[in-house]
Amino acid sequence: FSNTTLVGITAIDGGGGNDTIIGSAADDTIIGGDGYDVLNGGEGDDMLTGGAHGDAFVFDVDWGNDTIADFTDADVLDLSSLGISYDDINIVQSGSDVLISDVNGNSIVLLGIDVSTIDNTDFSF
Fold first, then answer.
1. In 10 A of CB 3, how many CB atoms?
2. The listed CATH number (2.30.40.10, 2.150.10.10, 2.40.50.140, 3.40.50.1110) that belongs to domain 11-124
3. DSSP states of 12-63
4. Could you tell me the pTM of the whole model?
5. Residue range 19-47, pLDDT digits in tens
Protein backbone atom coordinates (compact mmCIF):
# COMPACT_ATOMS: atom_id res chain seq x y z
CA PHE A 1 0.00 0.00 0.00
CA SER A 2 2.97 2.34 -0.24
CA ASN A 3 1.91 5.70 -1.71
CA THR A 4 -1.68 4.47 -2.07
CA THR A 5 -4.66 6.84 -1.98
CA LEU A 6 -8.06 5.41 -1.09
CA VAL A 7 -11.13 7.58 -1.77
CA GLY A 8 -14.62 7.12 -0.34
CA ILE A 9 -13.51 4.76 2.41
CA THR A 10 -14.93 5.42 5.90
CA ALA A 11 -13.34 2.46 7.71
CA ILE A 12 -9.74 1.31 7.39
CA ASP A 13 -7.33 -0.89 9.35
CA GLY A 14 -3.66 -0.21 8.63
CA GLY A 15 -2.57 -3.61 9.95
CA GLY A 16 1.16 -4.10 10.52
CA GLY A 17 3.78 -1.50 9.74
CA ASN A 18 4.12 2.22 10.27
CA ASP A 19 1.06 3.80 8.66
CA THR A 20 -0.07 7.34 7.90
CA ILE A 21 -3.84 7.34 7.49
CA ILE A 22 -5.89 10.47 6.81
CA GLY A 23 -9.66 10.29 6.95
CA SER A 24 -12.31 12.25 5.10
CA ALA A 25 -15.08 14.70 6.01
CA ALA A 26 -17.27 11.68 6.84
CA ASP A 27 -17.43 9.93 10.21
CA ASP A 28 -14.47 7.58 9.82
CA THR A 29 -13.26 4.54 11.75
CA ILE A 30 -9.48 4.33 11.54
CA ILE A 31 -7.33 1.61 13.12
CA GLY A 32 -3.57 1.97 12.88
CA GLY A 33 -2.70 -1.59 13.93
CA ASP A 34 0.87 -2.57 14.81
CA GLY A 35 3.57 0.00 14.21
CA TYR A 36 4.18 3.67 14.88
CA ASP A 37 1.16 5.18 13.14
CA VAL A 38 0.04 8.70 12.28
CA LEU A 39 -3.75 8.96 12.27
CA ASN A 40 -5.75 12.01 11.18
CA GLY A 41 -9.51 11.57 11.03
CA GLY A 42 -10.05 14.76 9.05
CA GLU A 43 -13.40 16.45 9.51
CA GLY A 44 -16.33 14.50 10.88
CA ASP A 45 -16.81 12.59 14.11
CA ASP A 46 -14.19 9.85 13.96
CA MET A 47 -13.28 6.75 15.97
CA LEU A 48 -9.48 6.36 16.10
CA THR A 49 -7.52 3.39 17.41
CA GLY A 50 -3.74 3.57 17.25
CA GLY A 51 -2.96 -0.04 18.12
CA ALA A 52 0.40 -1.26 19.39
CA HIS A 53 3.36 1.12 19.87
CA GLY A 54 3.38 4.92 20.16
CA ASP A 55 1.06 6.68 17.75
CA ALA A 56 0.43 10.29 16.72
CA PHE A 57 -3.16 11.46 16.51
CA VAL A 58 -3.22 14.58 14.32
CA PHE A 59 -5.99 17.18 14.47
CA ASP A 60 -6.51 20.01 11.98
CA VAL A 61 -8.92 22.97 12.08
CA ASP A 62 -12.58 21.87 12.43
CA TRP A 63 -11.68 18.24 13.17
CA GLY A 64 -15.12 17.53 14.67
CA ASN A 65 -15.77 15.35 17.71
CA ASP A 66 -13.33 12.46 17.65
CA THR A 67 -12.87 9.52 20.00
CA ILE A 68 -9.60 7.71 20.69
CA ALA A 69 -10.14 4.16 21.91
CA ASP A 70 -6.64 3.29 23.14
CA PHE A 71 -4.66 6.38 24.13
CA THR A 72 -1.49 5.58 26.10
CA ASP A 73 1.41 7.56 27.53
CA ALA A 74 3.46 6.56 24.44
CA ASP A 75 0.98 8.37 22.14
CA VAL A 76 0.82 12.06 21.26
CA LEU A 77 -2.06 14.40 20.40
CA ASP A 78 -0.74 16.62 17.61
CA LEU A 79 -2.47 20.02 17.54
CA SER A 80 0.47 21.81 15.93
CA SER A 81 -1.48 22.95 12.85
CA LEU A 82 -3.97 24.89 15.00
CA GLY A 83 -1.67 27.64 16.24
CA ILE A 84 -2.77 27.17 19.85
CA SER A 85 -1.11 26.22 23.13
CA TYR A 86 -1.88 23.94 26.07
CA ASP A 87 -3.59 26.87 27.80
CA ASP A 88 -6.07 27.19 24.90
CA ILE A 89 -7.71 23.79 25.39
CA ASN A 90 -10.08 22.56 28.08
CA ILE A 91 -9.37 19.15 29.63
CA VAL A 92 -11.92 17.59 32.00
CA GLN A 93 -12.98 14.22 33.35
CA SER A 94 -16.26 13.05 31.80
CA GLY A 95 -17.37 9.85 33.50
CA SER A 96 -14.61 7.30 32.92
CA ASP A 97 -13.19 9.27 29.97
CA VAL A 98 -11.23 12.46 29.35
CA LEU A 99 -12.85 15.20 27.28
CA ILE A 100 -10.54 17.67 25.52
CA SER A 101 -12.16 20.60 23.72
CA ASP A 102 -11.23 23.81 21.95
CA VAL A 103 -13.07 27.13 21.72
CA ASN A 104 -14.56 26.21 18.32
CA GLY A 105 -16.57 23.25 19.64
CA ASN A 106 -14.23 20.50 18.46
CA SER A 107 -13.53 17.72 20.93
CA ILE A 108 -11.43 14.64 21.60
CA VAL A 109 -12.63 11.89 23.94
CA LEU A 110 -9.97 9.59 25.38
CA LEU A 111 -11.83 6.43 26.40
CA GLY A 112 -11.04 4.95 29.82
CA ILE A 113 -8.44 7.57 30.76
CA ASP A 114 -8.16 9.50 34.04
CA VAL A 115 -7.64 13.24 33.63
CA SER A 116 -4.83 13.17 36.22
CA THR A 117 -2.65 11.27 33.71
CA ILE A 118 -2.94 13.95 31.00
CA ASP A 119 -0.51 16.87 30.83
CA ASN A 120 1.32 19.02 28.28
CA THR A 121 3.75 16.19 27.44
CA ASP A 122 0.86 14.32 25.79
CA PHE A 123 0.55 17.08 23.18
CA SER A 124 2.47 18.56 20.29
CA PHE A 125 1.74 22.25 19.64
1. 4
2. 2.150.10.10
3. EE--SS--EEE--SS--EEE--SS--EEE--SS--EEE--SS--EEE--TT-
4. 0.93
5. 999 999 999 999 999 999 999 999 999 99
